[in-house]
Design brief:
Strand content: 35-45%
CATH architecture of the largest domain: Roll
Structural class: alpha+beta
CATH topology of the largest domain: Diaminopimelate Epimerase, Chain A, domain 1
Number of helices: 6
Low-confidence stretches: none
Mean pLDDT: 96
CATH superfamily of the largest domain: Diaminopimelate Epimerase, Chain A, domain 1
Largest sheet: 8 strands, mixed, barrel
Radius of gyration: 17 Å
Number of strands: 17
Shape: globular
Order of helices and strands: EEHEEEHEEEEHEEHHEEEHEEE
Length: about 280
């Protein structure tokens, strides 16, 4: 393995429990792509971030799931911010990713370190009726289950996600989907996860995120999707910015995770959370 240090953290954790596991590899030079893919598969987390050089305020970062490279990953960026903060101190670091520069800010010290990222500019596209129906069929849901106040959309903040909101939390709690069929749909549509949403109140949402394209049944906390969702709410006029809200994810999986989202009037969405060492 190329020289470097591998950290294991859980991002968007609640104290000493929960959070989405991520690997963070830090070295002076990125390993070859095939080696990064192998390391990510060995780590087994939904994503591993590879960071080089090992010092400085500006780094290059690549993200790998166990099966593919992904353009951007929010929870691995939060984990990276915490690692950089613990090793190099509080401050803002610029990460050069495949989708452009991402700023991540580390605050606190030791086990109380948290990080915030600011996404690239968000955008959305419509979903065809046929593709939405296919996604619903994979999930075992129907159009009658959808929350019409949050229309389904394809949203981006560094990676594409379908955002699909329902009116009944029971549908999230009992999620059981067709892995192979949904994976094929997501590959065709260029999706990273599905952001499945139930709104408890204006500032609190619950989410589940299937991730079959990465070889993972479900992501316990998805920062990139949270940023895309925040951008969608603002850009569609469904939320008056500036605003903030919380996404709870991973509860049904037994890994409770909390994602804090701040939506400015314009520009990238700020996503924050704690990360604990594993």
């Amino acid at each position: 393995m190329s020289d470097g240090k591998l950290y294991h953290l859980a991002a968007f954790a609640q104290g000493d429990k929960g959070g989405n596991p991520a690997g963070v590899w830090v070295g002076d030079q990125l390993p070859p792509p095939e080696e990064m893919q192998r390391i990510a598969a060995d780590v087994g987390a939904s994503e591993t971030a590879f960071v080089a050089p090992a010092s400085g305020e500006r780094r290059t970062v690549r993200y790998y799931s166990p099966e593919i490279e992904v353009s951007f990953c929010g929870h691995a960026t939060i984990a990276t911010g915490v690692v950089l903060g613990q090793e190099d101190g509080e401050g803002t670091y610029t990460l050069d990713t495949l989708v452009g520069p991402i700023e991540v800010t580390a605050l606190g010290s030791g086990d109380n370190m948290e990080a915030s990222l600011r996404s690239i500019d968000t955008k959305q596209e419509s979903i065809t009726d046929e593709s939405l129906q296919e996604a619903l069929d994979c999930l075992g849901w129907s159009c009658d289950d959808l929350d019409e106040s949050l229309p389904a959309v394809k949203a981006w903040a560094g990676a594409w996600h379908y955002v699909i909101a329902v009116t009944d939390k029971h549908l999230l709690d009992t999620l059981d989907y067709n892995f192979d069929r949904l994976k094929a749909l997501m590959r065709r549509e260029g999706l990273t996860t599905l952001q499945l949403i139930w709104r408890e109140r204006e500032d609190l949402f619950h989410s589940r995120n299937p991730f079959p394209i990465g070889g993972v049944v479900e992501d316990p906390a998805t920062g990139a999707a949270a940023a895309a969702f925040g951008g969608y709410l603002r850009d569609a006029g469904l939320m008056d910015a500036p605003a903030s809200f919380v996404i709870r994810q991973g509860d049904v999986m037994g890994v409770p995770s909390v994602i804090r989202v701040n939506v400015p009037e314009r520009g990238g969405i700020v996503v924050s959370g704690f990360a604990r060492s594993l």
